[in-house]
Each structure stands twice: as C-alpha cells, then as structure tokens.
Design goal:
It is built from 18 helices and no strands. It is mainly alpha-helical. Helix 7 crosses helix 11, helix 13 crosses helix 14 and helix 14 packs antiparallel against helix 15. The longest helix has 33 residues. The relative contact order is 0.14. The N terminus and C terminus are likely disordered.
C-alpha cells in the first residue's frame, strides 16, 4: 500500500502544531495540581499559625483507648457507603455483586485527595462491571446528595440555637433541594439546559448532564432509594461520631455530639465551595475555626481537625491503595487508563434518552 506524503509546508505546520501542543499540555498538567498545592499550603499555614509545640502536646494527649473506635468508624463509614451505593446501582439495573461494590468503594479512596478523586470509585465500578460511566456517576451523585442532606438535617437543631450561624446549614440544605429539583422536575431542567446550551464551555457538558438527569430522575422515583434511606442516615451518624470521638480522645467533655454534627456539616459545605481536591485545606481550616467558636483552644482545635482527617482520608487512602493492588488483577484494570475520564458520546446519550 502506497501513501502520498503531505506537502512540505503542511508537514511543517503539523510539526509546529504538535510541538506547540507539548508545552500547552505540560502547562495544563501542572495547573491541575495548583488546587492541591494551595490546599497543602493552607494546612501548613494553619499548623504554623497555631503553636506547633502546643499542637504536639495535643497529639500526645490523645487517649489511645479511642483508637479502635476511630478505626471502626473511619473504615466502617466506607463499608456502609458501599452497601448504600449497591442499592442505588441495583435500582438502575446495574447487576454487580454487593461485596465487589463495597470492595471497589474502599479501593476508590486511594485517590480521594487527588483532583476528581471522588469519581474514582465510579470509574472502577464502570470498568469492572462493564457499564456506562454516566450511570454509576448518577448513582454516586444521588448517594452523596442524600448523605449530605441527612448530615445537614442532623446539624439543624444545633444550628438553630446559634441564630444567624444557622444560615451556614440552611443555605446548603436549600442548595441540595434545588439540585434535586433541577434534576427531577422537567420544566426546571429544561430551563437550566437552555442556559447550559448558551455557554460555550458548558455546552460540551450537556450530553453528560442529560444522562445524569435521566438516571437521577429514575433513582428519585424508585422505591429502593427511600427504602434504604436509613443507610444514608447511618453514614451521617458515623461521620459525626468520628469527629466527636477524636475530640473526646484529645479534650474530653469539650465537644458535644450535636455540636460535632454542626461542625462536620458546615465543613462539608466549605469543601463544596472550595476548589481543592477532597476539600483539603478548607475542611481543616473550617473545622478548627468552628471548634474555636465553640470554646476549644486554637491549638487543640487544630490538632483535632488534623487528626480527624488523618483518621478518615489518611487511613482509608492507605487501605485503598492496598485494595487497588488486588483490584488490578481481579478486574484486569490498567494503571494507564484508570484515571482517564471520558465524556459519553452525544449520539449515545440521545439514543439512551429515546429508549
């Protein structure tokens, strides 16, 4: 087979274009790490501003008897998350074993503190089960919306007692309700879709948003979404109890469980508003600030916030990487394609919408 060579000027233009793309891709790669660097800088500034010596003393005050409780709560949270996710996947017709779903949920925590790390478990399950990424992202989205709403509901009584500060809980609750309404009410979604179509950058996301809308609407109309709602409540209770247990181990009697619920809920709102992966930096700073507001000294509050994150994300990141070593062989996953997120083709989404 003979192929005709391109004209010299065309070859030159192509080569110039390829060489021009290399520094551009490199720049974008480094730019994607900027939120992570800023988050780590925020944590470093928090530790430096608080007296490092006093923080070290607070760490030494940690009651070792609470270690089993902290570990069970930190790991158990993601086990319950996996079970809850399995019920939602099943409601969408995704037939994947319960234990495998729980295992991949824990595996996904390996990248929880990286950009788009929250989507890793969806990508893992999509590849392992051979289903579309959009469907498992939809079930993950519904799960997170229900969990966060239950979290704010637990924090509301304490927030109302703090008067104006209750806005920090009420506004995010309304925001969650608004998202659910947009994804499930056809008229509202049609208006939002028109707005998305007018914005050049967002227009490219419209096929994926259409698929998300279709699947979330199915889930919010499915009885299993509400039949297993106690699992979402259990997630919220375990997350709050983890923060309370760490505070109790460091400074007993200073933080009530209801106050811990308020602090944790507000910090999750801060994580939403920040652009840092996993809310890194924003969660630690807001947790420490709210604990000081509730009467805990700044050095102890900083130590509690750091220890809580180490127990949650730190411990489960390590466990996640260990699980990933087994998951690669079990599900024939490749490291090169594991973190490559692809948008669903527009034609495929249209076909799903008319089916």
């Amino acid at each position: 087979m003979v192929t005709e060579a391109a004209p010299p000027d065309e070859q030159t233009s192509r080569e110039g274009h390829d060489h021009g793309d290399v520094p551009r891709r490199s720049w974008r790669r480094w730019l994607s790490y900027l939120p992570l660097l800023l988050a780590l800088g925020a944590i470093a500034a928090l530790l430096v501003y608080a007296d490092p010596h006093k923080i070290g003393i607070a760490f030494q005050r940690f009651n070792l008897d609470y270690i089993p409780i902290v570990v069970v709560l930190a790991v158990g949270f993601y086990l319950v998350q996996g079970v809850r996710w399995w019920t939602l996947n099943r409601a969408l017709g995704i037939r994947f074993p319960l234990l495998d779903t729980v295992f991949l949920t824990e595996t996904g925590q390996a990248t929880a503190l990286l950009p788009l790390g929250e989507l890793t478990r969806a990508l893992l399950l999509s590849k392992a089960a051979g289903v579309g990424l959009g469907r498992v992202v939809a079930s993950e989205t519904v799960q997170e919306l229900l969990f966060v709403f239950m979290l704010f509901a637990l924090a509301l009584p304490k927030a109302l007692g703090l008067h104006l500060i209750a806005i920090a809980v009420i506004v995010p609750m309304l925001f969650v309700v608004a998202i659910v309404a947009i994804l499930t009410v056809e008229r509202l979604y049609a208006r939002v879709r028109r707005v998305i179509g007018r914005v050049p950058v967002l227009k490219r996301l419209r096929p994926a948003v259409d698929e998300l809308h279709r699947d979330t609407r199915v889930l919010f109309r499915h009885p299993d979404t509400y039949r297993y709602l106690p699992l979402s409540v259990a997630q919220a209770i375990m997350a709050v109890t983890l923060l309370w247990a760490v505070a109790e181990a460091v400074d007993p009697g200073k933080l009530s469980w209801t106050s811990a619920g308020f602090v944790y809920a507000v910090t999750q709102g801060a994580a939403w508003l920040s652009f840092s992966p996993g809310g890194l930096g924003a969660v630690e700073a807001s947790t420490a600030g709210l604990l000081v507001l509730l009467g805990i000294s700044f050095d102890v509050a900083t130590a509690i916030s750091v220890m809580q994150r180490l127990a949650d994300k730190g411990l489960n990141t390590v466990i996640g990487w260990v699980c990933y070593l087994f998951a690669r062989r079990r599900y024939n996953l490749t490291g090169a394609s594991l973190f490559r997120f692809e948008m669903p083709p527009a034609e495929e989404v249209r076909g799903l919408g008319t089916g």
